[in-house]
Specification:
The complex is a heterodimer of chains A (about 110) and B (about 450). Helix content of chain A is about 25%, strand content about 35%. With about 110 residues, chain A is α+β, with helices and mostly antiparallel strands. Chain A has one domain (about 1-110): Alpha-Beta Plaits. In chain A, strands 2-5-1-6 form a 4-stranded antiparallel β-sheet, covered by helices on one side. In chain A, strands 3-4 form a two-stranded antiparallel ribbon. In chain A, helix 1 packs antiparallel against helix 2 (about 65-80). Chain A starts with a strand and ends in a 17-residue tail after the last strand. In chain A, about 20% of the residues are buried. Chain B contains 16 helices and 2 strands. The chains are: A alpha+beta (about 110), B mainly alpha (about 450). Chains A and B meet through strand 3 and strand 4 of A and helix 8 and helix 9 of B.
Chain lengths: ~110, ~450
């Protein structure tokens, strides 16, 4: 199994969810995150005092996938998240040792 | 406030219209203090929101009682030496009859004193914006009591009390440019020079945590200010109160636009904080001058105040004093602008026949205005600094550095302004588990 994590622009969330559902993914976890990559932050001004805001709002999406589906799923997420502008985010995958469905106790791919 | 123009030789009789109007104006001015609390409260960081709100609200409590006990007597009692008033019948308001009229006016003394009470409440509250995040609440409460007693009550007497030196000299201050705004702004400067800067000033980001609250507060201030300004004529018999009402709106509109234009040119954006600040700067500047200038004059007052205050709020970074929410930059500077412009723009057709430089009256009135501005500024600055110094050496004015960094709300008020736990109800953070009273816990065990 793989854990696919995507840190992307917040307004792409709906497209990504729809694309994953179309692919057949049954569940995902979303958290609000903040961070920056190459686009860095922005400048705000309050009564003439300028503040550099480094961290910009992002959405972090986590999906568990079977090994065979992982590469294709990553492509689905990347395609749905892309706007072509700087700051689109990152997607990565890491191996997962095990997963358990809490209600039934099923383990491994059966738990997905 | 100028003496009433008595048209007939007869003594004034009670006017129900003026009495009702003035009671409403008093309530409007009262609303300005909560408005100010939100205006300031939105500008601080999340961790000191409640303290900022409470610094204003506590003034509603303390100053009200002082006013009833002796404040009204000190400010408006029989003059001694043009410096201070006293009238022992007014101590505890005990000797005032329900139908006694305020001398020369058509409203009861009770109406006049409650209207003036609201001014005495908001003036110390104005100072609090400069002291954000760092002042012990007990020290602040005591400061308000002492400051009202030795600064506000005497200065209100100078400016508005019969026999007060500025009043007799002919300094024009319709609703409080000197007595309220320069007074509070100079006091703020005096206190912060003693107590010093917030931890992290000029290093840590200190942006406002809620601009919607700031806008709400500015809106309430603008609304309440109609009572503050138009009510200061104490009645509506000659139209001067209505002129003041119009000029209040005109100058505020002009100052808001001027501040926005200045910052768009200078910093590249029209900000909400700029709109709110510009409006308040205009309200401050028209406060002393709105009865003396024409509506076109009010536009000039507003534009000058909007631009100068927008420039003045940057000075704290250059000269390194932490006027946290710009009380000096907006109230002191705005008050000076409005008070001095009377000397140039008084039309002779408002509250009095006094004409300013641009209306052919020469600089006669301007010098009087300078005297009022300088005296109030110097007295308030020095006495406030001495008070802060004395409190700092005895009680201590500041919370500890750890408490300030962690947030003064928790240290001084044992509360948090906002629950950010979301739908999870704070389960992860394990906060806010109420401690059950011992007896209840015991009985629950029996039930179980």
């Amino acid at each position: 199994m793989k854990l696919i994590t995507a840190v992307v622009k917040p307004h792409r969330l709906d497209e990504i969810k729809e694309a994953l559902q179309a692919f057949g993914v049954h569940g995902l976890t979303v958290t609000e995150a903040s961070g920056y990559g190459r686009q860095r932050g922005h400048t705000e001004v309050y009564r003439g005092a300028e503040y550099t805001v480094d961290l910009v709002p992002k959405i972090r999406i986590e999906v568990l996938a079977e090994d065979d589906d992982a590469e294709e799923l990553i492509d689905v997420v990347v395609k749905a998240a892309r706007t072509g502008k700087i700051g689109d985010g990152k997607v990565w995958a890491v191996p997962v040792e095990t997963a358990v469905r809490v209600r039934t106790g099923e383990r491994g791919p059966d738990a997905l | 406030m100028a003496p009433a123009i008595t048209l007939a030789a007869d003594a004034p009789t009670l006017s129900s219209a003026n009495t009702g109007f003035m009671l409403i104006c008093s309530a409007l001015v009262m609303l300005m203090t909560p408005g100010l609390a939100f205006f300031y409260g939105g500008m601080v960081r999340v961790k000191s929101t409640l303290n900022m709100l409470m610094m204003s609200f506590i003034s509603l409590g303390i100053v009200t009682l002082l006013w009833v006990l002796y404040g009204f007597s000190l400010a408006f009692g029989t003059d001694s030496g043009s410096i201070i008033g006293w009238n022992s019948d007014w101590v505890g308001l005990s000797g005032i009859g329900l139908t006694d009229l305020w001398d020369g006016y058509t409203i009861p003394v009770f109406v006049f004193l409650v209207f003036q009470l609201m001014f005495a409440i908001i003036t110390p509250a104005l100072i609090s914006g400069a002291l954000a995040d760092r002042v012990k609440f007990s020290a602040w409460a005591l400061f308000i009591a002492l400051w009202a007693t030795v600064v506000y009550f005497p200065v209100a007497h100078w400016v508005w009390g019969a026999g007060g030196w500025a009043f007799e000299l002919g300094v024009i201050d319709f609703a409080g440019g000197t007595a309220v705004h320069i007074n509070a702004g100079a006091a703020a400067l005096g206190v912060i020079l003693v107590i010093g800067k917030r931890v992290g000033f000029k290093k840590d980001p200190m942006r406002p945590h809620s601009l919607p609250l700031v806008m709400l507060g500015a809106g309430l201030l603008w609304f309440g200010w109609f009572g503050f300004n138009a009510g200061s004529w104490l009645g509506n018999d000659d139209g001067v109160g209505a002129l003041m009402f119009v000029n209040t709106q005109v100058a505020t509109a002009a100052a808001m636009l001027a501040w926005l234009a200045y910052e768009k040119i200078r910093h590249g954006a029209f900000t909400t904080l700029g709109a709110a600040s510009g409006a308040v700067a205009g309200l401050v500047a028209i406060t002393p001058s709105g009865g003396a200038v024409s509506p076109v004059g009010a536009i000039v007052v507003g534009v000058v105040a909007g631009v100068l205050c927008a420039m003045a709020v940057g000075l704290k970074y250059r000269f390194n004093y932490d006027d946290s929410l710009d009380v000096v930059g907006v109230h002191m500077v705005g008050g000076i602008v409005g008070s001095l412009l009377i000397g140039l723009l008084a039309s002779g057709k408002g509250q009095s026949h006094v004409e300013g430089l641009f209306y052919g009256g020469g600089l006669h009135q301007f010098w009087k205005q300078c005297a009022g501005v300088f005296a109030v500024l110097a007295y308030s600055l020095i006495v406030s600094a001495v008070l802060a110094f004395a409190l700092d050496k005895t009680l201590g004015m500041r919370v500890t550095e750890d408490e300030e960094v962690a947030g003064i709300d928790q240290a001084e008020h044992a509360e948090t302004a906002y629950d950010f736990s979301g739908a999870g109800g704070g389960a992860a953070a394990r906060t806010a588990v109420p401690a059950a009273p011992a007896a209840e816990t015991a009985s629950k065990k029996v039930d179980a």
